[in-house]
Amino acid sequence: MFSKPKVQKLLGEEFIPVAANDWYQRRRQDAEGHFFRSVAAQGPRRTEGGTRQGHYVFTAGGKLLGYNNNRDPKKRLAMMRDALKKWEALPDSEKTATIPDRGKQDAKYAREFPKGGTVVKVHSRALEGKDGQLKAAVIGGNTPLAAVDFLWLKKEEVAALHALSKSGGYLPDRLTERMARFHLNDSIRGEPRPWKRSEVKNCTLTLTPSGEVTGTILINSRDGKMGYEGALTGTISFDKNGNLQRFDLFTLGSHWGEGQFTRGARPGKSPLGHVFSLTSATKPEDQIPPQGMHWEQGYWEAEKH
Amino acid sequence: MKAILISLLGAGSLLGQWSAEQKAAIAEILPKAEETAWLQIGWRTDLWEARREAAKAKKPIYLWEMDGHPLGCV
Protein backbone atom coordinates (compact mmCIF):
# COMPACT_ATOMS: atom_id res chain seq x y z
CA MET A 1 0.00 0.00 0.00
CA PHE A 2 2.79 2.46 0.92
CA SER A 3 4.35 1.89 -2.51
CA LYS A 4 1.42 3.56 -4.24
CA PRO A 5 2.18 7.16 -5.30
CA LYS A 6 -1.32 8.27 -4.28
CA VAL A 7 -0.78 7.03 -0.72
CA GLN A 8 2.74 8.45 -0.58
CA LYS A 9 1.42 11.86 -1.63
CA LEU A 10 -1.34 11.75 0.97
CA LEU A 11 1.03 10.73 3.76
CA GLY A 12 3.71 13.20 2.75
CA GLU A 13 1.39 16.17 2.39
CA GLU A 14 -1.22 15.68 5.07
CA PHE A 15 0.54 13.75 7.84
CA ILE A 16 3.78 13.44 9.77
CA PRO A 17 4.55 9.73 9.12
CA VAL A 18 6.30 7.78 11.86
CA ALA A 19 7.32 4.12 12.09
CA ALA A 20 8.05 2.48 15.42
CA ASN A 21 8.71 -0.90 16.97
CA ASP A 22 5.87 -1.86 19.30
CA TRP A 23 8.00 -4.33 21.24
CA TYR A 24 9.83 -1.33 22.74
CA GLN A 25 7.08 1.28 22.65
CA ARG A 26 4.57 -0.70 24.66
CA ARG A 27 7.14 -1.49 27.35
CA ARG A 28 9.14 1.69 27.86
CA GLN A 29 8.50 3.43 31.17
CA ASP A 30 9.24 7.01 30.17
CA ALA A 31 7.40 9.99 28.72
CA GLU A 32 7.35 8.57 25.20
CA GLY A 33 6.07 5.19 26.35
CA HIS A 34 3.35 6.74 28.51
CA PHE A 35 2.33 9.03 25.68
CA PHE A 36 2.11 6.23 23.13
CA ARG A 37 0.10 3.97 25.43
CA SER A 38 -2.28 6.84 26.26
CA VAL A 39 -2.97 7.21 22.53
CA ALA A 40 -3.39 3.45 21.99
CA ALA A 41 -5.72 3.20 24.98
CA GLN A 42 -8.23 5.38 23.15
CA GLY A 43 -8.59 2.59 20.59
CA PRO A 44 -9.00 -1.18 20.82
CA ARG A 45 -5.37 -1.89 21.77
CA ARG A 46 -5.46 -1.41 25.53
CA THR A 47 -4.65 -4.79 27.11
CA GLU A 48 -1.90 -4.34 29.68
CA GLY A 49 1.27 -5.84 28.26
CA GLY A 50 -0.45 -6.88 25.05
CA THR A 51 0.52 -5.88 21.55
CA ARG A 52 -0.47 -2.43 20.36
CA GLN A 53 0.58 -2.84 16.76
CA GLY A 54 -1.44 -1.21 14.03
CA HIS A 55 -1.86 2.07 12.22
CA TYR A 56 -2.78 5.14 14.25
CA VAL A 57 -3.64 8.74 13.40
CA PHE A 58 -3.54 11.22 16.28
CA THR A 59 -2.77 14.80 17.15
CA ALA A 60 0.55 16.02 18.53
CA GLY A 61 -1.27 16.42 21.84
CA GLY A 62 -2.31 12.76 21.81
CA LYS A 63 -5.95 12.69 20.67
CA LEU A 64 -6.66 9.54 18.64
CA LEU A 65 -8.40 10.23 15.33
CA GLY A 66 -8.19 6.82 13.70
CA TYR A 67 -6.93 3.27 14.15
CA ASN A 68 -6.72 0.31 11.83
CA ASN A 69 -4.83 -2.96 11.78
CA ASN A 70 -6.38 -4.29 8.62
CA ARG A 71 -4.21 -5.40 5.72
CA ASP A 72 -6.82 -4.32 3.21
CA PRO A 73 -5.40 -1.14 1.62
CA LYS A 74 -8.91 0.19 0.93
CA LYS A 75 -9.87 -0.04 4.58
CA ARG A 76 -6.64 1.60 5.69
CA LEU A 77 -7.03 4.39 3.18
CA ALA A 78 -10.62 4.87 4.35
CA MET A 79 -9.34 5.17 7.93
CA MET A 80 -6.82 7.81 6.86
CA ARG A 81 -9.49 9.86 5.09
CA ASP A 82 -11.93 9.51 7.96
CA ALA A 83 -9.23 10.64 10.39
CA LEU A 84 -8.48 13.65 8.21
CA LYS A 85 -12.13 14.66 8.35
CA LYS A 86 -12.00 14.49 12.15
CA TRP A 87 -8.80 16.52 12.04
CA GLU A 88 -10.43 19.22 9.92
CA ALA A 89 -13.28 19.45 12.42
CA LEU A 90 -10.92 20.10 15.33
CA PRO A 91 -10.52 23.61 16.72
CA ASP A 92 -7.18 25.24 15.86
CA SER A 93 -6.08 24.91 19.46
CA GLU A 94 -6.11 21.12 19.17
CA LYS A 95 -4.10 21.11 15.96
CA THR A 96 -0.99 22.11 17.82
CA ALA A 97 0.46 21.43 21.24
CA THR A 98 3.28 22.40 23.49
CA ILE A 99 5.54 19.37 23.62
CA PRO A 100 7.51 19.13 26.85
CA ASP A 101 11.05 17.90 27.13
CA ARG A 102 11.00 14.13 26.78
CA GLY A 103 12.93 13.69 30.03
CA LYS A 104 15.10 10.71 30.84
CA GLN A 105 14.55 7.80 28.49
CA ASP A 106 14.01 4.26 29.74
CA ALA A 107 17.45 2.78 29.06
CA LYS A 108 16.03 -0.74 29.12
CA TYR A 109 13.93 -0.08 26.05
CA ALA A 110 15.32 3.03 24.36
CA ARG A 111 18.08 2.07 21.97
CA GLU A 112 20.79 4.52 21.03
CA PHE A 113 23.20 4.11 18.17
CA PRO A 114 26.75 4.02 19.61
CA LYS A 115 28.80 7.17 19.08
CA GLY A 116 31.18 6.69 16.17
CA GLY A 117 29.57 3.36 15.36
CA THR A 118 29.06 1.69 12.01
CA VAL A 119 25.92 0.28 10.40
CA VAL A 120 26.06 -2.67 8.05
CA LYS A 121 22.83 -3.36 6.23
CA VAL A 122 21.88 -7.02 6.01
CA HIS A 123 19.50 -8.15 3.30
CA SER A 124 18.26 -11.70 3.12
CA ARG A 125 16.06 -13.62 0.74
CA ALA A 126 14.60 -17.09 0.35
CA LEU A 127 16.13 -18.62 -2.77
CA GLU A 128 15.50 -21.62 -4.97
CA GLY A 129 17.49 -23.41 -7.63
CA LYS A 130 16.20 -22.98 -11.13
CA ASP A 131 17.97 -24.04 -14.32
CA GLY A 132 21.26 -24.31 -12.46
CA GLN A 133 20.98 -20.81 -10.97
CA LEU A 134 19.75 -19.38 -7.71
CA LYS A 135 16.62 -17.27 -8.01
CA ALA A 136 14.36 -15.52 -5.54
CA ALA A 137 12.03 -18.24 -4.32
CA VAL A 138 8.41 -18.27 -5.37
CA ILE A 139 6.36 -19.49 -2.42
CA GLY A 140 2.63 -19.97 -2.68
CA GLY A 141 2.59 -18.08 -5.95
CA ASN A 142 4.38 -15.05 -4.49
CA THR A 143 7.98 -13.93 -4.21
CA PRO A 144 8.53 -12.94 -0.58
CA LEU A 145 10.13 -9.55 -0.09
CA ALA A 146 13.79 -9.25 0.80
CA ALA A 147 14.19 -8.88 4.56
CA VAL A 148 16.40 -6.13 5.93
CA ASP A 149 18.24 -5.87 9.22
CA PHE A 150 21.12 -3.82 10.58
CA LEU A 151 24.38 -5.06 12.03
CA TRP A 152 25.77 -2.52 14.49
CA LEU A 153 29.49 -2.22 15.18
CA LYS A 154 31.11 -0.07 17.86
CA LYS A 155 33.95 2.30 17.04
CA GLU A 156 36.45 0.20 19.01
CA GLU A 157 35.31 -2.96 17.21
CA VAL A 158 36.06 -1.36 13.85
CA ALA A 159 39.45 -0.24 15.19
CA ALA A 160 40.16 -3.83 16.25
CA LEU A 161 39.23 -5.04 12.79
CA HIS A 162 41.59 -2.50 11.27
CA ALA A 163 44.43 -3.78 13.45
CA LEU A 164 43.59 -7.35 12.49
CA SER A 165 43.54 -6.47 8.80
CA LYS A 166 47.28 -5.74 8.88
CA SER A 167 48.28 -9.24 9.90
CA GLY A 168 45.22 -11.25 9.05
CA GLY A 169 43.60 -13.86 11.27
CA TYR A 170 40.29 -14.98 12.68
CA LEU A 171 37.59 -12.37 13.09
CA PRO A 172 36.89 -11.74 16.79
CA ASP A 173 34.43 -14.15 18.42
CA ARG A 174 32.30 -11.19 19.49
CA LEU A 175 31.70 -10.18 15.90
CA THR A 176 31.29 -13.64 14.41
CA GLU A 177 28.88 -14.73 17.15
CA ARG A 178 26.89 -11.52 16.72
CA MET A 179 26.68 -12.09 12.99
CA ALA A 180 25.77 -15.74 13.34
CA ARG A 181 23.31 -15.54 16.21
CA PHE A 182 21.52 -12.33 15.31
CA HIS A 183 21.89 -11.92 11.57
CA LEU A 184 22.13 -15.33 9.91
CA ASN A 185 18.51 -16.07 10.69
CA ASP A 186 15.56 -16.94 8.55
CA SER A 187 13.79 -13.57 8.79
CA ILE A 188 11.77 -13.93 5.60
CA ARG A 189 8.38 -14.48 7.21
CA GLY A 190 8.51 -12.48 10.44
CA GLU A 191 10.65 -12.03 13.51
CA PRO A 192 13.08 -14.88 14.08
CA ARG A 193 14.45 -15.58 17.54
CA PRO A 194 18.19 -15.11 17.89
CA TRP A 195 20.17 -18.33 17.84
CA LYS A 196 21.40 -19.46 21.25
CA ARG A 197 25.13 -19.64 21.88
CA SER A 198 24.94 -23.39 22.29
CA GLU A 199 23.28 -23.68 18.89
CA VAL A 200 26.23 -22.15 17.02
CA LYS A 201 28.29 -25.24 16.31
CA ASN A 202 30.77 -23.50 14.05
CA CYS A 203 31.33 -19.96 12.88
CA THR A 204 34.93 -19.40 11.89
CA LEU A 205 35.60 -16.40 9.71
CA THR A 206 39.06 -15.50 8.51
CA LEU A 207 40.35 -12.13 7.29
CA THR A 208 43.48 -12.06 5.14
CA PRO A 209 45.85 -9.06 4.97
CA SER A 210 44.50 -8.41 1.49
CA GLY A 211 41.01 -7.99 2.93
CA GLU A 212 39.41 -11.22 1.85
CA VAL A 213 37.00 -12.81 4.29
CA THR A 214 35.94 -16.45 4.13
CA GLY A 215 34.35 -18.87 6.50
CA THR A 216 31.72 -21.45 7.23
CA ILE A 217 28.79 -21.46 9.61
CA LEU A 218 26.83 -24.30 11.18
CA ILE A 219 23.94 -23.64 13.52
CA ASN A 220 21.65 -26.33 14.85
CA SER A 221 19.00 -26.34 17.54
CA ARG A 222 19.25 -28.94 20.28
CA ASP A 223 16.51 -31.07 18.75
CA GLY A 224 17.85 -30.53 15.24
CA LYS A 225 14.55 -29.10 14.03
CA MET A 226 15.90 -25.63 13.27
CA GLY A 227 19.22 -24.63 11.87
CA TYR A 228 21.38 -23.00 9.26
CA GLU A 229 24.43 -24.17 7.37
CA GLY A 230 26.30 -21.92 5.02
CA ALA A 231 29.47 -20.33 3.79
CA LEU A 232 30.57 -16.72 3.68
CA THR A 233 32.84 -14.81 1.37
CA GLY A 234 33.60 -11.14 0.85
CA THR A 235 35.80 -8.18 1.61
CA ILE A 236 36.55 -5.99 4.62
CA SER A 237 38.89 -3.14 3.79
CA PHE A 238 40.04 0.20 5.19
CA ASP A 239 41.31 3.44 3.75
CA LYS A 240 44.75 4.80 4.64
CA ASN A 241 43.30 6.58 7.66
CA GLY A 242 41.86 3.40 9.10
CA ASN A 243 38.28 4.17 8.18
CA LEU A 244 36.18 1.21 7.17
CA GLN A 245 35.84 1.37 3.43
CA ARG A 246 34.17 -1.90 2.61
CA PHE A 247 32.25 -4.48 4.58
CA ASP A 248 30.82 -6.49 1.71
CA LEU A 249 29.96 -10.01 2.70
CA PHE A 250 27.82 -12.59 1.01
CA THR A 251 26.53 -15.77 2.56
CA LEU A 252 24.73 -18.64 0.96
CA GLY A 253 23.35 -21.51 2.90
CA SER A 254 20.44 -23.69 3.79
CA HIS A 255 18.02 -23.11 6.61
CA TRP A 256 15.48 -25.45 8.09
CA GLY A 257 12.68 -25.28 10.61
CA GLU A 258 10.52 -22.46 11.88
CA GLY A 259 10.08 -20.46 15.07
CA GLN A 260 7.09 -19.10 16.96
CA PHE A 261 6.95 -15.98 14.81
CA THR A 262 8.31 -17.46 11.58
CA ARG A 263 5.68 -20.02 10.76
CA GLY A 264 5.25 -21.40 7.27
CA ALA A 265 8.83 -22.44 6.49
CA ARG A 266 9.44 -24.49 3.40
CA PRO A 267 9.83 -28.21 4.16
CA GLY A 268 13.33 -29.56 4.65
CA LYS A 269 16.48 -27.60 3.95
CA SER A 270 15.98 -24.56 1.74
CA PRO A 271 18.41 -22.05 0.25
CA LEU A 272 18.78 -18.70 2.00
CA GLY A 273 21.08 -15.83 1.03
CA HIS A 274 22.37 -12.86 3.01
CA VAL A 275 24.19 -9.78 1.73
CA PHE A 276 26.03 -7.52 4.19
CA SER A 277 26.90 -4.03 2.96
CA LEU A 278 28.23 -0.91 4.60
CA THR A 279 25.83 2.00 4.80
CA SER A 280 26.45 5.62 5.67
CA ALA A 281 23.44 5.50 8.00
CA THR A 282 22.44 9.07 7.25
CA LYS A 283 18.75 8.25 6.81
CA PRO A 284 16.44 7.43 9.71
CA GLU A 285 15.56 4.09 8.15
CA ASP A 286 19.22 3.08 8.31
CA GLN A 287 19.53 3.89 12.00
CA ILE A 288 16.95 1.60 13.53
CA PRO A 289 18.28 -0.99 15.98
CA PRO A 290 19.09 -4.55 14.95
CA GLN A 291 16.00 -6.76 15.05
CA GLY A 292 17.49 -9.09 17.65
CA MET A 293 18.58 -6.37 20.07
CA HIS A 294 15.75 -6.79 22.57
CA TRP A 295 18.39 -7.63 25.15
CA GLU A 296 21.06 -5.03 24.38
CA GLN A 297 23.92 -6.54 26.36
CA GLY A 298 23.23 -9.93 24.82
CA TYR A 299 23.68 -8.40 21.39
CA TRP A 300 26.88 -6.52 22.13
CA GLU A 301 28.40 -9.44 24.04
CA ALA A 302 27.13 -12.26 21.88
CA GLU A 303 30.17 -14.39 22.69
CA LYS A 304 29.35 -14.34 26.41
CA HIS A 305 25.62 -14.74 26.82
CA MET B 1 21.20 -27.35 -4.95
CA LYS B 2 24.33 -28.11 -2.95
CA ALA B 3 26.31 -28.06 -6.19
CA ILE B 4 25.08 -24.55 -6.94
CA LEU B 5 26.08 -23.33 -3.48
CA ILE B 6 29.54 -24.90 -3.65
CA SER B 7 30.06 -23.49 -7.11
CA LEU B 8 29.10 -19.99 -6.03
CA LEU B 9 31.08 -19.80 -2.82
CA GLY B 10 34.06 -21.85 -3.94
CA ALA B 11 34.97 -19.13 -6.41
CA GLY B 12 36.05 -16.77 -3.62
CA SER B 13 35.40 -13.09 -3.65
CA LEU B 14 38.59 -12.06 -5.48
CA LEU B 15 38.79 -9.08 -3.17
CA GLY B 16 35.23 -8.14 -3.65
CA GLN B 17 35.23 -8.54 -7.38
CA TRP B 18 32.33 -10.90 -7.40
CA SER B 19 32.16 -13.56 -10.07
CA ALA B 20 29.31 -13.31 -12.56
CA GLU B 21 27.46 -16.11 -10.75
CA GLN B 22 27.91 -14.41 -7.40
CA LYS B 23 26.75 -11.09 -8.81
CA ALA B 24 23.64 -12.77 -10.15
CA ALA B 25 22.87 -14.39 -6.79
CA ILE B 26 23.47 -11.12 -4.92
CA ALA B 27 21.15 -9.33 -7.32
CA GLU B 28 18.47 -11.90 -6.53
CA ILE B 29 18.86 -11.28 -2.79
CA LEU B 30 18.92 -7.47 -2.79
CA PRO B 31 15.55 -5.71 -2.93
CA LYS B 32 14.24 -4.50 -6.26
CA ALA B 33 13.32 -0.84 -6.66
CA GLU B 34 9.61 -1.58 -6.34
CA GLU B 35 10.26 -3.31 -3.00
CA THR B 36 11.72 -0.15 -1.48
CA ALA B 37 9.36 2.41 -2.98
CA TRP B 38 7.58 2.75 0.36
CA LEU B 39 10.76 4.19 1.87
CA GLN B 40 10.25 7.32 -0.24
CA ILE B 41 7.58 8.39 2.22
CA GLY B 42 10.14 9.85 4.58
CA TRP B 43 9.27 7.92 7.70
CA ARG B 44 10.35 9.47 10.96
CA THR B 45 11.60 7.09 13.62
CA ASP B 46 11.50 9.35 16.69
CA LEU B 47 7.95 9.71 17.97
CA TRP B 48 8.77 12.54 20.37
CA GLU B 49 10.45 14.62 17.69
CA ALA B 50 7.55 13.83 15.35
CA ARG B 51 5.19 15.31 17.94
CA ARG B 52 7.18 18.55 17.86
CA GLU B 53 7.15 18.55 14.07
CA ALA B 54 3.43 17.85 13.92
CA ALA B 55 2.64 20.58 16.45
CA LYS B 56 4.66 23.09 14.44
CA ALA B 57 3.31 22.05 11.04
CA LYS B 58 -0.24 21.65 12.37
CA LYS B 59 -0.56 18.18 10.88
CA PRO B 60 -1.75 14.91 12.39
CA ILE B 61 0.69 12.08 13.06
CA TYR B 62 0.38 8.81 11.17
CA LEU B 63 2.03 6.08 13.25
CA TRP B 64 2.85 2.67 11.79
CA GLU B 65 3.45 0.51 14.84
CA MET B 66 4.55 -3.11 14.49
CA ASP B 67 6.11 -5.88 16.57
CA GLY B 68 9.46 -5.74 14.86
CA HIS B 69 10.35 -2.38 13.36
CA PRO B 70 8.32 -1.67 10.20
CA LEU B 71 11.47 -0.31 8.53
CA GLY B 72 13.41 -3.48 9.27
CA CYS B 73 12.69 -7.17 9.12
CA VAL B 74 9.96 -7.58 6.45
Topology readout:
The complex is a heterodimer of chains A (305) and B (74).
Chain A: H1 5-14, E1 16-21, H2 22-25, H3 31-40, E2 54-58, E3 64-68, H4 73-89, E4 118-130, E5 133-136, E6 147-153, H5 155-167, E7 169-170, H6 173-183, E8 200-207, E9 212-220, E10 227-238, E11 244-256, E12 270-279, H7 296-300
Antiparallel strand pairs in A: 2-3, 4-5, 4-6, 4-12, 7-8, 8-9, 9-10, 10-11, 11-12
Chain B: H1 2-10, H2 20-29, H3 47-57, E1 61-66
Task: Describe the protein in words.
The complex is a heterodimer of chains A (305) and B (74). Chain A has 305 residues and is α+β, with helices and mostly antiparallel strands. Helix content of chain A is 23%, strand content 31%. Chain A has 2 domains: 5-95, no CATH class; 118-300, no CATH class. Chain B is mainly alpha-helical and 74 residues long. Chain B has 2 domains: 1-30, no CATH class; 33-74, no CATH class. Chain B starts with a helix and ends in an 8-residue tail after the last strand. Classes of the chains: A alpha+beta (305), B mainly alpha (74). β2 (54-58) of chain A pairs antiparallel with β1 (61-66) of chain B, so a sheet runs across the interface.
User: Biggest interface, which chains?
Assistant: A-B, 97 and 59 residues
Question: Order of SSEs of chain A, N→C?
Answer: HEHHEEHEEEHEHEEEEEH
**Could you estimate the helical fraction of the residues of chain B in percent?**
40-55%
Strand content of chain B: 5-15%
Could you say which overall geometry of chain A the principal axes of the C-alpha atoms support? globular
- Low confidence ranges of chain A: none
Strand content of chain A: 25-35%
* Count of beta strands of chain B: 1
- What integer value in Å does the Rg of chain B equal? 20 Å
